[in-house]
Structure formats: C-alpha cells, structure tokens
Design brief:
CATH topology of the largest domain: Spore Coat Polysaccharide Biosynthesis Protein SpsA, Chain A
Distance between the termini: 101 Å
CATH architecture of the largest domain: Alpha-Beta Complex
Number of domains: 2
CATH class of the largest domain: Alpha Beta
Bound molecules: uridine-diphosphate-N-acetylglucosamine, calcium ion
CATH superfamily of the largest domain: Spore Coat Polysaccharide Biosynthesis Protein SpsA, Chain A
Length: about 475
C-alpha cells in the first residue's frame, strides 16, 4: 500500500507579522514548507498532498520546482482537522498509511517519519503520534495520559487548565501517521468546541480512544527535530539547528571550516573533501564545490558549480561555472552564464556576465566582461571593459587566443579580436582587429619642457598679488 503524506500549509502565521505566508519564509535558502515535503519524500511517501489557503499562490510558487505534488485548497481556515477534511473532500477517501505533517515543522528527519509509519503498521494503529519534550512547552498541545500511562488525548495550550499547562511536559509534535481508511471514515466526528472554535486534528486521538481503536505514541529523543516555527525567533532557532546538522555532515565528509557557526550551506549543496570554507560564506541552491578548494571568506554562491582546487575569495556568484584551478576575487561578481575554464582568473573588482573565459586567461583587475567569448591565454589589462549594451540591444565580443589587451581598453561590441592581437593601453576599439595585429587608438603624447614649473610660479605670484 503506498504511503501518503499530507502537509498542512494553509495557515497565515500571524505570529510572524509578515506580508507573506509563514511557510514561504526561508530556512537556509529553502522555504519552510519545502523541508517537510522533502523529508516525506525521502521517507518513502509516494503521494504528497500540500494543503494551501492563505497566500496559496505564493506557497504553490515556493514549491514550483518540486515534481509530483498535489495541492488542495482550504479556502477557509477552520483548523488542522478541517484542513484534513478539505483533503478528503477534494481527493476522496484515502487508503494506506497517511502521514500528516505541518508546513512549519522543518527539522523532522526522514528516519523519524519512517519509524512512525513502521509503528503504525506493526500495531495496526488507527493513529500513531510523535511526541517530544521541548525545553519550553508553551504553545504546544500537551499529551494526556491515563493512570497506566496509556494515551488519552491531546489538549491544546489554549485549552489547558493552569495545572495542565504547568504540569505536562510531553508535547504533540504535529506529526502523525494515520490509517487512511479509518481517518476518512471518522474525520467528520471532530467538533469545534474549544477556545479557538477550530476543528483540531489532535482531537482524533481522543475520538479513537473512545471508539476502542488502537492509538499509540512515539517519544522523539531529539526535541530539536520537532521545533515548530511560529515566530521569527523560532525561525532563527530552527536555522541554527539545521546549520549545525548540515555543517557537521560536511565536516564528517572531509570539509574544513574555520568557524562552522559562520558558514551557511543549503540542503542541496555538495562540497568535496579537503575543501576549506572560511567565515561568512553562504552556499545556496544547487551549488556544488569540488575537492581541495578554498571558499570564502565573505562569499555567496548560488546555483554555481566549482571544480577542484579553486580559490574563491570574497566572491558573489550566481549560475556560474568554474572549472578546475580557477581563481576569483577578492571581490569578484560572477553573474549568470559566466564560465571560467581551467586555470582562468577573475580578479579583484571584476564583474563577468554571460561570458566564457578560456583556459589560463586572466581578467585580474577592475574589469567588466559581458557577452564575450574569450580564447585561452588572454590577458585583460586593468580597467578594461566590454561595452556590450547600446541602450537597446546587447552585442557580443569575441576575443581569440593569446590576445593581450592593454589597460583601460574599451571594446565596443559587436567586435572581434583575432588570435595573438595586441591592443595598446587606453584604446577604444570599435572595429575588428585581425590576428597578430596591433591596434592603437589614442592621441599623440605632447611634451612641453618646463611648463609645469612655470605654471606653478605663475599661480603663486597671482595669489600673492591678491593679498
Ligand atoms: C499545532 C498543534 C499542536 C502542536 C503544534 C506543534 C493543532 C490543533 N495543534 O499547534 O498540538 O503541539 O502544532 O507544532 O493541530 N494549518 C492549516 N489550516 C488550518 C490551520 C492550520 O493548514 O486551518 C496549518 C498551518 O499552516 C501550520 C500547521 O497547520 O503549518 C499548524 O498550525 P498552527 O496554527 O501553527 O498550529 P499550532 O498552534 O502551532
Ligand atoms: Ca505551529
């Protein structure tokens, strides 16, 4: 029987005080709702249903890159139980183990979800709930037990008596595995007779108990895994936990970090061994880094591929590709479509966009290279730029192999520079240059002997005369 997962993400998240739905806020570069979706899939859930409502379009967009997700709209938010009812009404009865997760609980591990499914199957439970004992139980639903320790029900924080609020430490994580068939059959029994006038999914536990259906709980040993994000403070706390987890894994795989508290790496990033990541580095999206590189300090790479033995110092790069032994920065900006081939260099205060820099070619200082195809062994002098935009259209610059471009050269595209050509410093190049030629575009230098000294004396004398 395939495993279903229902992820509840329709709430507004008022405690975030935000114009955006809570589950779209990012944790290490990924929206909150992405995390439980991903954990459920990794745990083996085949059918994934996400309940959206508040800011539905934004939540759908946040998951646009995820394949095979069914969205169900909960147009009125009348509680977590009501959200499950909306799913039943939209897709019909479900069969098989049905995991319910909240979109604001991003740290849950796939193994934990799989354990819950196994427990449900082994005991033919109508429901198994995952409980935990957080340092601070306030805000969470509390687990009620009878004299023998049997599961009796869940009481929401807002519905607790003062004794329950101060005396019960075991909390509901908001992660459950239901038997789909029995959930479909009994979901309508939930009533909204509570402080918030909402239909609580948590009431299913008491309902099943009264029916004599088997329910049980698993106590998670790592409370951090079940942190719910209701506020910006909890978002920061969740980020710390996930940052620790990812960085510990990377270090375990052979990555060095001078200070792991100052390195932020997204969940889909890979880093090869013997690479060192220096402080204030962020690696986002589908970035991959090879072996033996030094990345950072002060670097942000998004969807960027870096080969082996590269040095990436104080660099911002997006959708760029760096082959092996490439060096960039300090202070390089590599925009989409940048491709640095082996041994190439993008130095300090250099911006490159939609361009290939050939093998061993160097753009060391203060340059802008856009829409350019550059051969190998090229040297671009300091301050040289491609003028790729005429105010309406972008144009390409082609530079052959072993070209030497003098400092402060403007290459006005479209323009082509042949292999082995030489451009004199400070030239404005507007016409193609044949292979092996010298191009020089500057006025003759004049020398006027003694002029500077005479001028200074003249100015001083004038100032004296005015006093
Ligand atoms: C919920 C649980 C509580 C548990 C805690 C764990 C209920 C009634 N309470 O409380 O026992 O300890 O999570 O973090 O379930 N949502 C919808 N539709 C709705 C209402 C909520 O999709 O009509 C979604 C929200 O977007 C959110 C999730 O369900 O992702 C949980 O809702 P939230 O209001 O945060 O519940 P808590 O008060 O945290
Ligand atoms: Ca919550």
């Amino acid at each position: 029987m395939p495993i279903n997962a229902i992820i509840l993400a329709a709430g507004e998240g008022t405690r975030m005080r935000s114009a955006h739905p809570k589950v779209c806020h990012k944790l290490l570069g990924k929206p909150l709702v992405w995390w439980p979706v991903h954990a459920a899939r990794t745990a083996g859930c085949e059918r994934i249903i996400v309940v959206v409502g508040h800011g539905a379009d934004e939540v759908r967009a946040a998951l646009a890159n995820e394949p095979d997700i069914e969205f169900v709209e909960q147009s009125e938010r009348r509680g977590t139980g009501h959200a499950i009812r909306c799913v039943r009404d939209a897709v019909g009865a479900f069969e098989g183990p049905t995991v319910v997760l909240y979109g604001d609980t991003p740290l849950v591990r796939p193994e934990t979800i799989a354990g819950l499914v196994d427990e449900t199957r082994a005991h033919h439970n109508a429901c198994t709930i995952l409980t935990f004992e957080p340092d601070d139980p306030s805000g969470y639903g509390r687990i009620l037990r009878d004299g023998d320790g049997g599961l009796q029900g869940i009481v929401e924080d807002k519905d607790c008596t003062p004794e329950q609020r101060d005396g019960l430490f075991e909390c509901n994580s908001g992660i459950y595995c239901f038997c789909g068939r029995r959930l479909t059959a009994n979901i309508d029994k939930i009533q909204a007779d509570n402080a918030q006038r909402e239909y609580y999914i948590t009431d299913m536990v008491g309902i099943y108990r009264d029916m004599g259906e088997p329910v049980s709980s698993l106590l998670a040993d790592d409370a951090d895994e079940l942190l719910g994000v209701n506020s910006r403070l909890q978002l920061a706390q969740a980020s710390y936990v996930m940052q620790d987890r990812i960085n510990a894994r990377l270090m375990d795989e052979g990555v060095t970090m001078l200070d792991p508290a100052l390195v932020w790496v997204g969940p889909e990033v890979s880093v090869g061994r013997d690479t060192e990541i220096l402080p204030l580095t962020m690696l986002w999206g589908e970035t991959s880094i090879g072996e033996g590189c030094t990345i950072g300090p002060n670097t942000r790479l998004t969807d960027t591929r870096v080969g082996n033995a590269c040095t990436v110092d104080e660099t911002v790069a997006q959708e760029a590709v760096l082959e092996n032994n490439v060096s960039c920065g300090p202070r390089a900006y590599l925009r989409p479509g940048t491709h640095l081939l082996d041994n190439a260099k993008a130095g300090t205060h250099v911006e490159i966009k939609n361009s290939t820099i050939g093998k061993g070619s160097k753009v060391p200082h203060l340059s802008y290279i856009g829409d350019t195809t550059m051969g190998s062994g090229v040297n671009i002098g300091a301050g040289s730029i491609t003028c790729n935009y005429d105010g309406v259209d972008k144009h390409r610059t082609t530079i052959g192999d072993d070209v030497f471009v003098g400092s402060d050269t403007m290459m006005v595209a479209p323009v082509s520079i042949g292999d082995g050509a030489l451009i004199g410093a400070s030239s404005c190049i507007t016409r193609d240059i044949p292979a092996g030629a010298l191009a020089l575009e500057r006025s003759e230098q004049r020398i006027v002997e003694g002029y500077a000294v005479e001028r200074l004396e003249r100015l001083k004398a004038r100032k004296k005369g005015k006093r």
